[in-house]
Amino acid sequence: MLAICKREFIQSFKGIKSIIIIAIFLLTAYYSADFSDLLLSLSDDFTSEEKQIIHTVGISFLIMFLGMLFVMGLSHDIVNREMHERTIRFLVTRTSRTSIIVGKFLGIALFWFVCLLTSFVIISIFVHRFDLITLFQSASLAIYYSAFTVLLSVLIPKPSITMFLSIVIGIAFPILNGWVSLTSNVWVSWLKYLFPFYYVEEQNYSFLVVLLLAGVMVGIALLVFRRREC
Amino acid sequence: MLAIETKQLSKSFWKNKVVDNIDLQVEKGEILGFLGRNGAGKSTFINMLTGIIQPSSGSYALLGVQGPNDSIKKKIGVMPDYSSLYGSMTAINHLHYLADVSGKPVSRQHCMEVLKLVGLEEHANKKAGKFSFGMKKKLAIAQAIIHDPQLIFLDEPTSGLDAESVIHIHLLIQQLHQQGKTIFMTSHNLDEVEKICSRIAIMKDGRIKKSGTMDELRAYYQSTITVTIKHSPIRPADLSTMQQWLEQAGTQLDIKENHFTIQVESEQKIAEIIRALGTYKIDIYRVDVEEPSLEEIFLEE
Prior knowledge:
The complex is a heterodimer.
Chain A: H1 2-13, H2 16-34, H3 36-42, H4 48-53, H5 57-65, H6 67-75, H7 80-84, H8 88-92, H9 97-127, H10 132-155, H11 159-182, H12 186-189, H13 207-227
Helix pairs in contact in A: 1-9, 2-5, 2-9, 5-10, 6-10, 6-11, 9-10, 9-13, 10-13
Chain B: E1 2-13, E2 16-27, E3 31-36, H1 42-49, E4 57-62, E5 65-66, E6 76-79, H2 91-101, H3 108-117, H4 133-145, E7 151-155, H5 163-178, E8 182-187, H6 190-196, E9 199-204, E10 207-212, H7 214-220, E11 225-231, H8 236-249, E12 251-255, E13 259-264, H9 267-279, E14 284-290, H10 294-300
Parallel strand pairs in B: 3-8, 3-9, 6-7, 7-8
Antiparallel strand pairs in B: 1-2, 1-4, 4-5, 9-10, 11-13, 11-14, 12-13
Helix pairs in contact in B: 2-3
Transmembrane segments (chain A): 12-33, 53-79, 100-127, 133-156, 163-184, 204-225
Protein name (chain A): ABC transporter permease subunit
Keywords (chain A): Membrane, Transmembrane, Transmembrane helix
């Protein structure tokens, strides 16, 4: 599992897409911290709690609204590429299927955690303050997206289809999540409990539920992958 | 102890039974050659034993451990039938990574030694994506043995390789056999199987038609022994009597001026024919015995 996790983690840094995404994150962190004072001066409506986290708003916005697109864009074929090219046979004959799925999931989740941690460190250098809860909330979202990506890659065997879906879902997900969170329609509002935004609205530990949801998705991916013929 | 034991192992895809109730036992230290035409079910059988696909019914055990079991994977090495490699990874990194995945990390020096065994030492730092088909095959064999497994599955290890590489791989397989490894290999190359395998199983339509050593298979198909006897001229008076006797002794009789060819059921019949020729005062100059080749047995099946 560790070998697979390590490879996926390192692979995530390679390629032009990764470099662009990392650059977007780091630049957002830098300017988010740099312009936080300017943002504060624009309005007096901010609560004291909001003022505390204003410098991380750029990163939070990025991970909420573009996170799914970024995670899926980088890793949509994390499992099905290996099945398509049959390299998965080298893995399933060597280790358990659980190790493969968990290793791959941890690899991409760790990549996003490192990206976020680096971004928060950059912010903390500027504002001399480290927002641990916001970091964990953002990381929980990244972990949720990573689990969803792994699940989709297990369910759909063709990389070309997951590539298309990564764009569609990446754009639709935050819109859909925002809608189910805000709607008063009782038939769909319950869906907010399955989406992550509901659990990161407040500065508390309810983000742990997001990790639980991610765990459920990885569990489903495992159940499907165990029955999958490679 | 048995290296492989299957009981009524079957695999169906929808209503199509690809592997049909196979009972097979492979002793430790054997090289078993698995022969069969395309679509006979050889690769499906290997894929079930190696955990790539799940059996529909029946059971199997590898090295005494009931399968499927992840703990046994450290002790087996598999070269799958269609070997696509990680194109962006170098040969040495392939071996390093896959040994790590097996839970049996190896040094880079050991990786180099294995690459040398398969004849790829000069390409250790070349990306697999730039390898030729033959080189990919060799790397696929190298990854199957990198973690020093006790039981090795090779699915058509030499297909598509040049003659020199084939000899190289044969020597490697024999070397692994001498180290006490059990090798289960499929092949389309009948000469290869005949040459290096200690036992052979012939598969057809998802079933094992016959298995045994080469001698056992020949004995089973002994009716096809072809004998050609070159002799001194036969007296015209004896010719018809002798012809009648030979027609009773065997089949496919073909008499020429100074030699004849006949197919007999057993080696005892050859001795009888030689004795009979003696009674007719015929001198025997030469006796050629053609035992059935594996190819003939295979085609007969």
